[in-house]
Amino acid sequence: MSTPTEWYRDQYLISISPSLLQPAAVNEAFKSDSIYWAKPIGEPLVKKMLEKSLCFGLYELPSSTSSIAGKNGPRQIGLARLITDEVSFAYLTDVYVLDEFQGKGLGTWLIECVEAHVMKWPELRRIMLITSHTNKLYEEKLGVKPFPQGVNNEMSVFSRAGLGSVLPH
């Protein structure tokens, strides 16, 4: 059984096709106050970042064929990016839906598509993410839990902020 690479709902599309990704749109989203964990960077770097990841792009489909004329593709309105070997490990980052599209269940759907995709990997050992607050969406849809984990809570996660971090070190 093959794993889907595209999901459709109403006038929206989620796709893992790299050809649909729009680095300029992602960088524009990084300028938004609601994307507090990132800042805009050079577009060639955004392109490289996206190419080196498994990305679930969220797109608004045109409402009519006449609105397609002159466009390269549907408008990118969200993203969920996995840094992964696509076998045993996945780190989820840069999950967003543009403000004007929130409240429609698109973020939940985006995470459900990520979950459906990674659960097809029989050797997946761990999926991780970092968030600034408890988020029931990730717990319910991905089954993630806050650390500590392991027998007697002996597993630790280590981290260091880099030069590009916009969050307090």
UniProtKB/TrEMBL annotation:
Domain of life, source organism: Eukaryota
Pfam families tied to this protein: Acetyltransf_1
PROSITE patterns linked: GNAT (PS51186)
Family matches, as InterPro entries: Acetyltransferase_Butenolide (IPR053144), Acyl_CoA_acyltransferase (IPR016181), GNAT_dom (IPR000182)
Gene Ontology MF terms in the entry: acyltransferase activity, transferring groups other than amino-acyl groups
Gene3D superfamilies in alphabetical order: 3.40.630.30
Residue span, N-acetyltransferase domain: 24-160
PANTHER family for this protein: FAMILY N-ACETYLTRANSFERASE, PUTATIVE (AFU_ORTHOLOGUE AFUA_6G03350)-RELATED
Name the UniProt record assigns to this protein: N-acetyltransferase domain-containing protein
